[in-house]
Amino acid sequence: MINQFRNLNPVNLLILAAYAIFMRLAIFLNLPDQLNFEFLEPYTKFFIQIPLTNYFSPAGNIFFATVLTFIQAILFNRIINNHGLLAKPSYLPALLYITGSSLFLQFLILSPALICNFLLIWIMDKFLKIGKTPNAMMTMFDVGMIIAFGTLIYFPFIVLLIMLWLSLLLYRSFNWREWIAGFIGFLTIFFFVAVFYYWNDNIAQFYKIWRPLVNKFPSTLQINFSDYLVLIPVGLIMILASLQLRENFFRSFISTRKAFQMLFFMFIIAIISFYTKPDFRVYHFLLSVPPGAVLLAYYFSNAKKRWFYESLFAVLVLCIQYFLFV
């Protein structure tokens, strides 16, 4: 399987589509009685009404989630190949993206985090470009606006504002205009939101939008570890990928080193942003799939012993299927 996806054969697109369906067999064969799709945050529904909750049957919900995941995988694959983050262009990023997007049952349904992954992939592309442009001010402004749009869909997306400044630290020398451009882009969108609230004599509700930002990070988490055993093979592959990356780190292009550092920070921020949503669902961690999938793809792109990496991937897929079914 891995060897097949190490090249850009167009046939791999068909195999990838079949693989995306295969990874969702568990939920297709055991359809829930009802699946609600809440597309926007409550503060956004105040001025945008999109009644999608009852538009999809459970089968339709999962089908469209599969289609969106497949489209994201293709876009993600193109971006990673365009920026040369792997040993050579391949369909491995798409393969690992779909694999990572199938880890848990809640990953397989329509969710705000799934929609936001389109924006996250777009942001990744823009961040990977800022080291190659003479002036990153407009790029950062655009990213700020994208993060604002994502925040209208799913509030924890706002934490990605931190990535504006982390990326500038990694890629560029200090320029105060670039440092504030992204934040201005973000404020531009929410300025119009504030105006709408004001016109409707509801400005007090606008202030309440920001309350989750002061939530305390939980000191204890109630976790059923048996639900997350599927992460063991994922963690093993990430450790192997980190060792491989460390070995090749100083032999890589400077842009590649910075890219993986940026993706590491994005991965961590996507995970910890759950604290802004006290009633968060497992699907929140879909936001960590794009940066995480790059690291997984890096290992399989550089691994040497075919019997080992093919077996490791097979174990990962079998573990995912087992825990999805049980």
TrEMBL record:
Q: Which Pfam families match?
A: DUF6427
The residue ranges crossing the membrane are: 12-31, 62-80, 92-123, 143-167, 179-199, 228-246, 258-276, 282-300, 307-325
Q: Which InterPro entries match?
A: DUF6427
User: What UniProt keywords apply to this chain's record, in alphabetical order?
Assistant: Membrane, Transmembrane, Transmembrane helix
Membrane recorded as keyword: yes
Q: Name the domain of life.
A: Bacteria
Q: What is the protein's given name?
A: Beta-carotene 15,15'-monooxygenase
- Organism, as annotated: Pedobacter planticolens
